[in-house]
Amino acid sequence: MCNIIGEKSENTAVSPVERRRELSLPKEQRCGIYVHVPFCRSKCRYCDFTSYPEKIGLAEAYMACVYKEMKLRAEELHGRKFASVYFGGGTPSVIDAKWIAGAVRRLRELYAVTPDAEITVELNPESVTAEKLAVYTAAGINRFSVGMQAASDVLLQELGRAHTVSGFRRAAALLRGKNFNADIMIGLKGQTAADVKEAVSLAAESGARHVSMYALTPEDGTPMYGDYLNGDLPDEDEVAALYNCGRAALAERGFYRYEVSNFAKAGFASRHNRNYWQRGEYIGFGVAASSFIAERRFTNTRDLDDYIKCILTDHYPVVDDERTTPQDAKFERVMLALRTEEGLSLKAYAAEFGADLLQDFSAPLQKNAPFLEQTEDGCIRIKEEYLFVQNHILVDFLQNA
Ligand code: SF4
Predict the structure, then answer these.
(1) 269 vs 36: CA distance, rounded Å
(2) Which of 97, 298, 344, 369 can pair with 132 through a Cys bridge, CB separation 3.0 to 4.6 Å?
(3) Which of 43, 122, 126, 128 should be mutated for ligand 1, with most atoms under 8 A from CB?
(4) 90 in ligand 1 pocket by Cβ < 6 Å?
(5) What residues does each domain of the chain span?
């Protein structure tokens, strides 16, 4: 049997206050870079991400466009320091590693990427090789994120993943000693608590220092959506039980939760992710990439051909561009912070907005008082046992905005 959440302290060596201090990103580190690589070996059954397995032949032309987009944006971003870079997808490891290494080089030439920047690349087990890892490491990539998802071939097949459990073990052996994350999915058809525990064990034994544990979201238009309509997927309560089981298993293995879906060994929380949750700035390059710079949120087209055409004709490939209002800014800050174990410091809110959080959000704070707490160092956060169901709480904050 798995423990229910909240029963166990995950890391007794570090006090909660110290841990929150460790997670709080200094202002000078609040700026990241995201690069989208939209190619995969095949399409997973649940995938709604921007990925084009059938267009992998365009990878070289695409990356040349990404390099050009980096150049196009360089002048307007002059003066900013970037403390993290993240190559996501798609599957960045499916393309020639020299294109990723080239992108890191370009970024360092064009932007003030800090010498100690966290640089992550997403990998899928079937496309990891020792040669690729050597190229990544030589380029300064110091963190990896592997799409493990499950420790059962039946579940991996159900998801339509291109790898098997032994494929993950092979990849993890190549990554041993490196700083890597393993993704785990919950809420899968036929998935049991034992399956989730086994996935946690496999990730931990393989040497992962970070685990992202996400609930499957059945997106309309994917083959998996049919399973959802048929009632084949676990319901909300069953998913919550799987999550609690996974969380307890991660705690036993020394992973502490710092955000609803993210768990790390002490010192291995991802800087890039923390920047998002602290509402830091980021610039996104590539198809479908989103950016948040100078209170503007903008997103590139999801269409690969349009993206390439725009870049080749010296146009920004942006399709949505919105300026956030001061009210948006407050709501976003609260909403993102309440996803985290750290919560939101009353002092930080006052310093950023010149306002009192308790007054600005008095109605939702009062309504949700049973689910919230104030920590000894003045942070408001969702009580740990309610973090997974935070969406029900955040709705009230949205209505207040
Ligand atoms: S590997 Fe990721 S991006 Fe690629 S098809 Fe599967 S879920 Fe989608």
Answers:
(1) 21
(2) 97
(3) 43
(4) yes
(5) 16-277, 326-400
Q: Which amino acid is at 222?
A: T
Q: In CATH, which superfamily holds the domain spanning 16-277?
A: tm_1862 like domain (3.80.30.20)
CA of 160 to the centre of ligand 1 (A): 9
Q: At what angle do helices 59-74 and 97-110 cross, to 10 degrees?
A: 10
- Ligand 1 atom, smallest distance to 90 CA: 3
Structure tokens at 38: 């939209």
Threshold 0.90, pTM exceeds: yes
Atom of ligand 1 nearest to the CA of 160: 6
* Contact call for residues 283 and 37 (beta carbons, < 8 A): no
The yes-or-no verdict on residue 1 having pLDDT over 80 is no
Alpha carbons within 13 angstroms on the beta-carbon side of residue 80 total 24
**Please, which residues bridge with residue 291 across strands?**
298
- Ligand 1, residue 124: give the atom nearest the CA: 1
In this structure, whether the domain defined by 326-400 belongs to CATH 1.10.10.920 is answered with yes
Distance between start and end Cα atoms, the chain: 42
Q: Which of 39, 42, 45, 47 to mutate to test the pocket of ligand 1 (most atoms within 8 A of CB)?
A: 47
Work out the percent of the chain whose per-residue pLDDT is above 90.
89
**Mean pLDDT in residue range 174-200:** 97
Q: Is the pLDDT of residue 5 over 50?
A: no
> Which has the closest alpha carbon to 278: 77, 75, 36, 83?
83
Q: Report pLDDT for 30.
A: 83
For residue 229, what are the contacts with CB-CB under 8 A and spacing of at least 6? Answer: none
Give the confidence band of 397 by pLDDT, cuts at 50, 70, 90.
Answer: confident
Kindly report, residue by residue over 43-102, the tens digit of the pLDDT.
999 999 999 999 999 999 999 999 999 999 999 999 999 999 999 999 999 999 999 999
Contacts of 325 by beta carbon, 8 Å cutoff, 6+ apart:
none
Cβ of 222 closer than 6 Å to ligand 1, yes or no, is no
* Pocket-testing residue among 42, 46, 91, 93, ligand 1, by greatest number of atoms within 8 A of Cβ: 91
The answer to whether the beta carbons of residues 155 and 190 sit under 8 Å apart is yes
